[in-house]
Model the fold of this input.
Amino acid sequence: MLGPVILAASRSDKMRRFVSAAPGTKQVVDRFIAGETVDQVVPIIEDAAGKGLEVTLDVVGEDITTPEQASAARDAYLELIGRLKVLGLGTKAEMSVKLSMFGQALDGGHELAIANVRPVVEAAASIGTTVTLDAEDHTTLDSMFAIHEELRKDFPQTGCVIQAYLFRTEDDARRLAAAGSRVRIVKGAYKEPASVAYQDKAEIDKAYVRILRILMEGDGYPMIGSHDPRLIAIAQELGRKAGRKLDEYEFQMLYGIRSEEHLRLAAEGHRMRVYTAYGTDWYGYFMRRLAEKPANLLFFGRSILTKG
Done:
C-alpha cells in the first residue's frame, strides 16, 4: 500500500525539499534520469542506437503554473529536436510529451496545450520521427484524446498512451486500435479513486491482458510498456496468435530498469524502445518510479542510509 502514499508525496513541496536534500538521492535519481541537459542525453541516444535499441525522450517537468513556463517546455523539446536533426538521430528517437507541461491545466489550457504541442509534432515529423502523448490522471484524458485526434489529421503517426487500471480503457483501446494508430499500453502510475480505476494488482494485470489483446488483434501499432516478464511473454504470444511480425509492435521499458532485458528482446529481433527522461525538474517523475515498484523504494532507502 506504499504506492498511493508515495504518489501523494510527489505533490508535496515539503517532501520535495526533503528528498532533494537527502544525501543518497543523486545516486538513485541518476539511475532513472539520463541527465539534465541535451548534451548529457545525446551520448545515451547514440549508445542505444549502437546496441540496436531505440529511445523515446521525455523532458521532465509537470508543475507548470504560467503560460511562459508552458512555452519554455515547448522550446526545450524544439531544442532537442534541433540537436537530433544535426546528429542524424531523428529515426532513432521519438518524443514523449505530457500535455500538462504545455499548459493543459491552465485557464484555456486545452487550446494552449495544442498550440504549444503542434510545433513540436511538426518539427519531429520534419526529421523523420514522431511524438507520443503521455497519459496523465483521468481528469485530463478527454482533452488528451481530443488533442491526439486533432494532431493525427495532419500527423497520423502521432501516438498516445492508455492506462490498463482505468475502467474506461478497454473502450478507448477499441476506438484507437485502427489502421495507422500508435498506442502505448501501461498499467498506470497515478493515484486514482476506486470509482474510475482498479485498485487490485491482479485485476490490473487481467485488464492489461484484455486490452493488449484488443490492440494486437486490431489494425494499429501496439507499444507494450511493461517490465513484467509474464506480461512480456503474454504479449509475444498474443502477437504470434494475431499473425504479427516482430516489427509490427514494440516493447518499451524505462531507462535504468531491466537493461539486460532491453538487449535480450532486441537480440531476438523485437523493436525495443527505452523511455529516457532528462531535465532538471525530475522530482515528480522520480517519485512515480518509486511508487511503481517497491524494490525501487528499497534501493532509495539503502542509498540514503549508506550516504551522509
About this structure: Strands lie at 54-59, 93-97, 131-133, 159-163, 182-186, 221-225, 250-254, 271-278. The two ends are 29 Å apart (CA to CA).
